[in-house]
Amino acid sequence: MNLSLRQMRAFAALAEARNFTRAAEQCSLTQSAFSSLISNLEAGLGLKLFSRNTRNVELTNEGEVFLNIVNTLLPETERALEEMRSQAELRRGKVAIAALPTIYSSILPSLISRFHAEHPGVELIIKDTANTGCIEHVRHRRVDFALCAATSEGSDFIAETLASDSFHFVCHASHPLAKRRSLTASEVQEAFPIIVYDGASSIRQHLDAVIYPQQWRRSYEVNSLSTAAALVIEGLGATIIPTLGLRQFRDPHLRAIPIDLPINERNICLLRLKHRTPSLAATAFIALVREHFETELDRLRPSNSFRAKLS
């Protein structure tokens, strides 16, 4: 037989009240409907669970055994149902996200704040990692989705473009190019070394690809934007970064100049597995990303882009 939650609750109520009228009231049922529920339970089990007379209702030996079972099953079943209701109403849940460090540090904080305000009971787990790490986290189901540079990693993924990011040459105000309104890749590549990033960085991969087979002249190679920013602030070099990285370079002595690259924009995407349905909590966060990502990116762009003070 299929034991229902309604039957378990009715049985538990009668076992406690030992009276059909009181047990029926407790379950918000008419006495006839309650009696039918108990009779159907006994018929389904093929056991008599209660002995009845005009005055008393008592558990049979089989009823005592079944009560022990129900006392174990009922709380767990009700707890499980409450958990699922909480998930459905986004009172609980978990969302795991992988994101480029530039996205994590610039776009995600405001989105996280919005999401927590609406769904304070949902746990967010966010991994900041390079583009290859984002892809691997999605591939191996360690995260619900990733926010990363567009990729062509195969047919198992859905890559939804959220926005296009442009690039800037960032230098100290004393740099020979600091007063330029705009630059081309060849003007920089032919005359000035730049601070480059680790080979796993999506910024490095994009910049290397746009001038291949030529190479950028390098002054330093670093792992993080914050390291590059410290070097640029000290006048030890210049670098090329996407709009997403500009927040790391806020300093009154720095300038950001638009640079025209052969491939001038890189697409930022929301990456997920094609055949994996996101949870309700993940779906809610994805909707928030779709709504606000491009607006948040626009806020990072310099107001006076040809020679912006990043302060």
TrEMBL record:
Sorted UniProt keywords: DNA-binding, Transcription, Transcription regulation
Gene Ontology terms, MF aspect: DNA binding; DNA-binding transcription factor activity
Residue ranges annotated for the HTH lysR-type domain, each copy included: 3-60
Any one annotated GO CC term: cytosol
InterPro entries: HTH-type_LysR_regulators (IPR050950), LysR_HTH_N (IPR000847), LysR_subst-bd (IPR005119), WH-like_DNA-bd_sf (IPR036388), WH_DNA-bd_sf (IPR036390)
Pfam families according to UniProt: HTH_1, LysR_substrate
Domain of life: Bacteria
Family assignment from sequence similarity: Belongs to the LysR transcriptional regulatory family.
Protein name (Swiss-Prot/TrEMBL): DNA-binding transcriptional LysR family regulator
Biological source species: Paracandidimonas soli
